[in-house]
Design brief:
This protein is mainly α. Helices cover 60% and strands 6% of the residues. A hairpin with a 5-residue loop joins strand 3 and strand 4. Helix 4 packs antiparallel against helix 7 and helix 4 runs parallel beside helix 8. The longest helix is centred in the N-terminal third of the chain and has 31 residues.
Amino acid sequence: MRVVTTVRAPLLAEARRGFAPWAGLTVLLTLGVALAASAGRWQGGWAETATELHDAVLITVPAAAAAGCWQGGRERRRRTRELWDTAVRPPLARFLVSVLPMALWVAAGYLAAAGLALLATWPYAQGALGDGPRLARLPFDAFVTGAAVPAGQVAGRVVPSRLTAPLLAVAGYLGLGVPAATGSGSGRYLDPALAVVETSVPVWWQPVTAAVWAGGLAGAAVLAYAARRRWTALLPLAAATAAAVLLIRTGDGLWRTDPLALRQVCDTSGTPAVCVDARYAGALPQLTEALSGVTGRLAGVRNLPVRWVDRYGGPRAGEAGLPSLTPLGWSFARGRLTDPAEFAWEAVGALQVRGDCPDELTDRRIVLADDAVVDYLAPLPARRHLDDLAPRAERAARLAARARLAAMGAPERRAWLSAYFAGRANCDPSGVPAL
């Protein structure tokens, strides 16, 4: 019992009264403030939340390394290093007693912030059945944040200067951020902060291998500095090297396309049908409602696309692109359309532009027809101020074309719109009727 107490007492003292709890709280608050400031672009999508939490490693890893570095210079600042060197406990044990509580606190701070972010997303998530929190990378991101602490502490003991910690934080930020931003070179696959698009998910072994890479480097640094048999540092270094080779050789195969991003969920109550990928299935009623005025006016019109789609890879033949819901925070934020009228206006524009049409479809006659169709199907008063900026003759021509289309009887207008969309679909200027 006395031996257990002897081992536990220093660990508990470091965990309760040392710098470690403050380091964990710093990570929690820093990450929490960063997430709150950018909530509009992730709150409402599980994939976006996971991506934001992964990108936060760019902040948490340098911060954790700086905290470990500051902890490493503690004995030097207190002038107690010589006293510690006379202790019976071996250097590696003393090092672990100092570093483990902080590493655990820092990882716990990251996980606490991640848990709060997931709770904030839950009320607004729009995914279909089967969608949910993306947790595959979360343990790795917490681990690599904690692993930065011992690496930083080694740096703080080797270079015990007050400037080492801030300089290490800046170097860590640049070292992680530059490869992640450039996205070039095989070395980017070793970057813990490498940005990944929301439509990709890692293969099952990628986070484990990346953890071996990061943990192996940290372990090698610790053993090379504090172990009596320093050759033992070769063991974690060999594991890190093997993991690095596997990551680099696999390359883009480390990720696969999210199956939910490939699956379309549709509302076929109108024509064209409205389809979104399954990650935003919960938003489909809002989108259908926003486009109900358009589909109502298009009832009975022929030669339309079969559906609007928000498809990974773009629309196929016979489809029109739906205005994108991503990146979140623009047209779609916290589970709601920010401007349904603008969304409908953009959707009508997608109906008009299909295929790779030549430039002659932009002559004045067709431009007037396009303007009249958009104004009839999805009038947007906020954009009508642009008419006042046009030359007087152009403004008069636009208003006259709109008035002629609006004054048509229902059968005549359906026939005109059917001919219009046929000409547009076939990229045939002569097939687009004049107004």
